[in-house]
Amino acid sequence: MLTSPLSPFEHEDSNLLLSAEQLTQYGAFWTAKEISQQPKMWRKVSEQHSDNRTIAAWLTPILAKPQLRIILTGAGTSAYIGDVLAAHIQQHLPLATQQVEAISTTDIVSHPELYLRGNIPTLLISYGRSGNSPESMAAVELAEQLVDDCYHLAITCNGQGKLANYCADKSHCYLYKLPDETHDVSFAMTSSFTCMYLATLLIFAPNPQALAQCIEMAEHILTERLAEIRLQSEQPSKRVVFLGGGPLKAIAQEAALKYLELTAGQVVSAYESPLGFRHGPKSLVDSYTQVLVMVSSDPYTRQYDNDLIQELKRDNQALSVLTLSEELLTGSSGLNEVWLGLPFILWCQILAIYKAIQLKVSPDNPCPTGQVNRVVQGVNVYPFVK
Known about the structure:
Oligomer: single chain
Helix content: 40-55%
Radius of gyration: 21 Å
Structural class: alpha/beta
Number of strands: 9
Order of helices and strands: HHHHEHEHHEHEHEHHHEHEEHEHH
Strand order of the largest sheet: 2-1-3-4-5
Strand content: 5-15%
Distance between the termini: 56 Å
Number of domains: 2
Mean pLDDT: 93
């Protein structure tokens, strides 16, 4: 349990109701800082994008290609950005014949011929906090090798990484460098995830009003809802399930990964869609299982979310059934799910860090023995010969 005296923003270095001294003691300073800074970083990313006069000029001739294929790619958390956004970006492309797909670098590297098509003009959008994971560069190089008309947009938090260096001086490449503060120091990706996610929306489907609502909700969470989230984290769960439909399914996937990473696997986490959950995964629910349902803002979709919520409550098997909705944060509804994903994942990140602290796991370094690393290690990349 978090038994230390807690008061909001005890001094200027406090985050998540904990002082800098407490966070250092818990091994949570950087994770807490990077979670808490997100509304500020979202503003900064938006301002930086507004000042950017070159990305649109670079993209315009590429987006004029009728058969253009856009691949959103990354590994782990970076891959989930594409999973959240692909269908939404598809709706905002200028030509109906163009296609957006989310394919992880790990899939591209192991099965390049399955995912890369030589005769289709392709824009590979690569996400990388550091841009130094082995698969990042391997996917870029395979695309260069196998695709005749290939372009690269690198969205990264590290201007000195391998991905950034590759894209910095080539006319068919564009380096979209995010503010230095988004290059998370801690083990798990938090602000780097949401800022690369936001950058993609700003490039392909900007919505200033939606962003303003997201920032307002995030600030509400950080100033008004932390005690509630902390209480949720203190439930004696051994399993936690995150559920969301459509774009929120990938947010649920990222939430599950964050929980697993920050608790060093001490709490088993899972994800699904509300409709998919009945098709087998619901079997894992027991009296030690916490379920969090991310409720859609779409009136049609939320009928399915609400049906499952009521079913889980009638079953009376779960430790708790929690709901996360726009109404919970603002009292209103209507924000598109891809934008809702930003404050929703913030809530889940906070839930995970509080649980890690409760379990006496250092969120900044949950695996000190090195089996899992901040930048993945141990990957052999083999030459591909057609």
